[in-house]
Amino acid sequence: MTSNAPLKELGEFLKARRGELSPRTVGLPDTGQRRVPGLRREEVAQLAAISTDYYTRIEQGRVPPSGPVLQALVRVLHLGDDQRDYVFELAAKETAPVRRGAQKIQPSLRRLLDDLTSTPAIVLGRRMDILAWNTLAAALVTDFSALPDKHRNLVRIMFTDPALRTLYDDWNTVARTTVGMLRKEAAAYSQDARLAALVGELSVRDDDFRTWWGSHQVTAGTVGTKTLHHPVAGDLTLDWDTLTAGTDPDQRLIVWTAETGSRSHDGLRLLSSWAASTHLDTSTT
């Protein structure tokens, strides 16, 4: 069978995870220093109860693994839940590209955004494109309306807007998480030309992106806590959550909240008042 993009990515992902494990981690004897770090192919095959030739062809993207074999590799390589979902999605992909039309925000999500006057929120679509936002999100992160439509992408903004590197207290962790989220998106849209162009552009422009993309780490990125140093609202510690639209699972609402009565909560109220006075645009794609 000839290789295709999802199987090639699956093989590269398995190879990267193999390189992170030591023999001792998986219960094999440590025979001393190795030329390259991690497990050998034959060791992974042995632990998964398959032939070395079969595993080699899987890593080379030449054959799709069966469900039981993939489950065995999940166990052997100590993959987490997000990583497990990722490899199963890659293994299930067809080679033929799927044509998808331009995304438009669901009307119900637009109404919800408009009602969230004291909570920053954005709607992400495929490729982590920013489909819509409310006034407070624009005040918190950046003026999305000032960007061309094709540049309204969360990952692209993270790596091309210098202000975000000082906005986030731990930019490295936040940015690396967005790369892991985009890598997971790539499994769902492996034939997407715009996604490939985005990855290519950022790989050329930013060394960190190129390194983190090459590490093949994935994350669902559905919840978390971020600390921000905002020029208007001051220091903010915000929880963020993700809600998936029931009418379109490719659209996700991201909201940032703070504990009631906290300094961060007061900071959001201050930012809301400031945003209302600046008349930030909440136009959508």
Question: Concise description?
Answer:
The chain is of the alpha+beta class.
Structure explained in plain terms:
- The chain is of the alpha+beta class.
- The protein folds into two domains: 5-92, 434 Repressor (Amino-terminal Domain) (Orthogonal Bundle); 107-278, Beta-Lactamase (2-Layer Sandwich), CATH 3.30.450.
- The chain has helices at residues 5-18, 41-48, 52-59, 67-76, 81-92, 107-115, 135-140, 154-160, 162-167, 171-188, 193-205, 207-214, 263-278, and strands spanning 121-124, 130-133, 223-230, 234-244, 252-257.
- Helix 4 (67-76) runs antiparallel to helix 5 (81-92), helix 8 runs antiparallel to helix 10 and helix 11 crosses helix 12 (207-214).
- The longest helix is centred in the middle third of the chain and has 18 residues, at 171-188.
- The two termini are 41 Å apart.
Please specify the SSE layout and strand pairing:
Blueprint: H1 5-18, H2 41-48, H3 52-59, H4 67-76, H5 81-92, H6 107-115, E1 121-124, E2 130-133, H7 135-140, H8 154-160, H9 162-167, H10 171-188, H11 193-205, H12 207-214, E3 223-230, E4 234-244, E5 252-257, H13 263-278
Antiparallel strand pairs: 1-2, 1-5, 3-4, 4-5
